[in-house]
């Protein structure tokens, strides 16, 4: 037996084993690979939207409603872009939205936590976009961001966390910079209210100047929304008591004179106004519904981000299409018509907003979003718990369609709209919702790139 040769062979085997163990050890020491956005929980996103709603409910004065809607549109798009690279075969909205610039890219062959990216992006965008935040509010935003980061550190390395934060913040900055060029304008300076039979005039009690005649010129998210508008008013204006228009106004009058407690409750539920501590501005009612639907469907981070983005498109484009229609037709409000031609003492149950009647602002904003949810999840049952903070029980709907129809009818109960306006408004809103829902955010098999 040749002992030197045996010892040499054993030494080679030992060296080989050490080499293999070193390689395996290196693999073990490599950062834990975080899950994809499709696999990650969306809890961090849900927590953020609930947190910011609670915070802004107490802001006084309340944020400008239409501006807030626009801002949450950008926030939804930014959230999607902050997690998009973690969604397999996903497409950036910069290839889908009108004049949206390319977004920052991730580093190749590097791990990311998409929850950490979303956390950083939302914290940054909330501070950049939302008006009325005090220094204490901004500190609270920082505290929640840091608390989430401390939780993330339990499962990912500082290297992954820092890289993810940096990416999320870069998206937030890019989205905010893009938003500054959209020509968003709610002023009426330079606008001359047209005068013709049946034209809108400022309404009681404030008789305020119009809001939003130039909103139609704001850059939308969809190219479709550059020109989209409502069809002509389906009933010709008339003051003749036998005319269809008079009958439509008389219907609003009769309903308003005999409102039941339930009809008042419905009108109040969808009024979404009233000031600090008494109402819930429209974005938060909508966001409450969106979040409730997502949680009920157990949507993970990737799916939740897609839905917040698509509904965000509705937040911005819904008012653009609606206000283009309002100031195109400049139709008189029921309260003005009724006081002139039916009963001078009549008042609407809800206070009229300062812009023309046709089409419905509430339907034009809410129902494209409801249509997106319907297209995404089907005509599912919904619990609307937006007013839990005020001690009100949720309103329960057997379907999204039922919720949509109640929201529409609420404005007739409130005395703000004719029924024919609500019928047309639903059609216009669903058309926009379908355009949004049709956006494909995943590459098809026959497209190698988008």
Features:
450 residues; mainly alpha; Vanadium-containing Chloroperoxidase, domain 1; Vanadium-containing Chloroperoxidase, domain 2; 2 domains; two-stranded antiparallel ribbon; 14 helices; elongated; disordered C terminus
Could you give the count of β-strands?
Answer: 2
Low-confidence stretches: 14-31, 274-278, 446-450
Structural class based on helices, strands and sheet pairing: mainly alpha
Mean pLDDT: 91
CATH topology term of the largest domain: Vanadium-containing Chloroperoxidase, domain 2
Radius of gyration: 27 Å
From N to C, what is the helix and strand string? HHHHHHHHHHHHEEHH
Return the CATH class of the largest domain: Mainly Alpha
Largest sheet: 2 strands, antiparallel
| Count of helical regions | 14
Number of domains: 2
Strand order of the largest sheet: 1-2
Quickly give the CATH architecture of the largest domain. Answer: Orthogonal Bundle
Helix content: 40-55%
Distance between the termini: 70 Å
Shape: elongated
Please indicate the percent range of residues in DSSP E strands (runs of 2 or more).
under 5%
Summarize the structure.
The protein is mainly alpha-helical. 54% of the residues lie in helices and 1% in strands.
Can you characterise this structure?
The structure is a single chain. The chain has 450 residues and is mainly α. The chain has 2 domains: 43-179, Vanadium-containing Chloroperoxidase, domain 1; 215-437, Vanadium-containing Chloroperoxidase, domain 2 (Orthogonal Bundle). It is 54% helix and 1% strand. The chain has 14 helices and 2 strands; from the N terminus they run ααααααααααααββαα. It has helices at 3-29, 43-57, 65-83, 114-129, 135-152, 158-179, 244-257, 261-269, 282-296, 301-329, 334-341, 361-377, 400-413, 419-437, and strands at 382-384, 395-397. Strands 1-2 form a two-stranded antiparallel ribbon. Helix 2 (43-57) runs antiparallel to helix 9 (282-296), helix 10 (301-329) runs antiparallel to helix 12 and helix 12 (361-377) packs across helix 14. It is elongated, with a radius of gyration of 27 Å. It starts with a helix and ends in a 13-residue tail after the last helix. The model is unreliable at 14-31, 274-278 and 446-450 (pLDDT under 50).
């Amino acid at each position: 037996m040749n002992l030197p040769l045996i010892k040499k062979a054993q030494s080679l085997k030992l060296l080989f084993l050490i080499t293999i163990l070193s390689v395996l050890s290196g693999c073990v020491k490599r950062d834990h690979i975080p899950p994809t956005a499709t696999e990650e929980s969306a809890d961090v996103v849900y927590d953020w939207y609930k947190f910011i709603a609670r915070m802004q409910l107490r802001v006084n004065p309340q944020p400008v409603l239409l501006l807030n809607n626009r801002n949450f549109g950008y926030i939804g798009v930014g959230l999607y872009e902050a997690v998009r690279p973690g969604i397999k075969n996903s497409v950036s909205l910069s290839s889908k939205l009108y004049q949206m610039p390319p977004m920052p890219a991730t580093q190749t062959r590097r791990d990311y936590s998409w929850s950490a990216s979303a956390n950083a992006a939302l914290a940054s965008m909330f501070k950049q976009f939302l008006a009325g935040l005090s220094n204490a509010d901004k500190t609270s935003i920082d505290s929640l961001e840091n608390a989430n980061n401390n939780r993330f550190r339990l499962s990912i390395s500082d290297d992954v966390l820092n890289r993810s934060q940096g990416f999320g913040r870069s998206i937030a900055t890019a989205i905010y910079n893009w938003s500054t060029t959209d020509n968003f304008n709610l002023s009426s300076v330079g606008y001359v209210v047209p005068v013709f039979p049946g034209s809108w005039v400022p309404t009681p009690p404030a008789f305020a100047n119009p809001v939003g005649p130039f909103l139609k010129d704001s850059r939308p998210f969809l190219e479709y929304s550059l020109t989209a508008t409502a069809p002509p008013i389906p009933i010709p204006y008339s003051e003749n008591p036998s005319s269809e228009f008079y009958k439509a106004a008389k219907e609003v009058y009769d309903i308003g004179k005999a409102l039941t407690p339930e009809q008042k409750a419905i009108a109040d539920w969808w009024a979404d106004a009233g000031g600090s501590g008494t109402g819930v501005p429209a974005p938060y009612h909508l966001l409450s519904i969106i979040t409730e639907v997502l949680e009920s469907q157990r949507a993970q981070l990737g799916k939740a981000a897609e839905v917040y983005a698509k509904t965000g498109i509705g937040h911005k484009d819904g008012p653009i299409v609606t206000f283009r229609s309002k100031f195109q037709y400049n139709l008189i409000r029921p309260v003005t018509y009724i006081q002139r031609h039916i009963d001078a003492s009549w008042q609407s149950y809800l206070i009229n907003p300062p812009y023309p009647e046709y089409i419905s602002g509430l339907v034009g904003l809410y129902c494209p979003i409801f249509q997106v949810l319907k297209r995404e999840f089907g005509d599912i049952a919904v619990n609307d718990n937006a007013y839990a903070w005020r001690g009100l029980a949720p309103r329960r709907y057997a379907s999204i369609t039922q919720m949509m129809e109640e929201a529409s009818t609420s404005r007739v109960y409130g005395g703000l709209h004719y029924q024919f306006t609500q019928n047309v408004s639903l059609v216009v809103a669903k058309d926009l919702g379908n355009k949004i829902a049709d956006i494909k955010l995943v590459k098809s098999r026959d497209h190698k790139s988008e």
